[in-house]
Amino acid sequence: PLPSAAPMPPEKLRVDNPWNLPMTGAWKFKLTRGQIIDGQFAPSAGPTPGVSCSSAQTGNPPENAFDGLTDTRWCASGPDLPAWLQADLGAPHKVTGVTVIWERPTEKYRFQIEGSLDGKAWTTLAVSPKAGLTSGPVRVILRDSRYIRVTVLGTSAGGWASIRECAIHYTENGADVAWRPRKQIAPSAAHNDDFA
Q1: Which residues in 160-191 are b (16+ Cβ under 10 Å) and which e?
Q2: CB of 185 within 8 A of CB of 121?
Q3: How far is residue 96's CA from residue 117's CA, in Å, rounded to a whole number?
Q4: Average pLDDT of the residues in 117-136
């Protein structure tokens, strides 16, 4: 049975009631979390796959730290530390280094970089000196990792955790690769459900 007043996502509607709807009355479907494109349901764009963080300030999501642009940034949602930025490389890789460009180039940031094969058990790959570091490349312990996490522990001026760019380098087929998250494919054109 269908609930009469509550909206229901199309995938639930179709799974629980595979087109066994009464033919009386007027039926209209409005997709609120996606759309039908060429006969297939396409979910709305959400967070960028492979990128996460402890928190994000509105307008400064974690994917900004991996977009190749220094005029965008990831910023934690407040001053509370530690705050972290994490990347899922999709498969284990021998990580050779991480380059971090902080929001404030003259401020020194205290941080640690960790790697993990499963996203649960973490190994420290690098730790900044107690005085902190400014932007630039960071040497890491070479280790196979699928997940890389940069955790901000403090700043010299008391600022928030904020990274303009984070380039994770690994070797693949003998070449240096700077990891980038997979782009979500945006629907090219909206298509109304044939049943609307």
Answers
A1: bbbbbbbbbbbeeeeeeeebebeeeeebeeee
A2: no
A3: 15
A4: 91
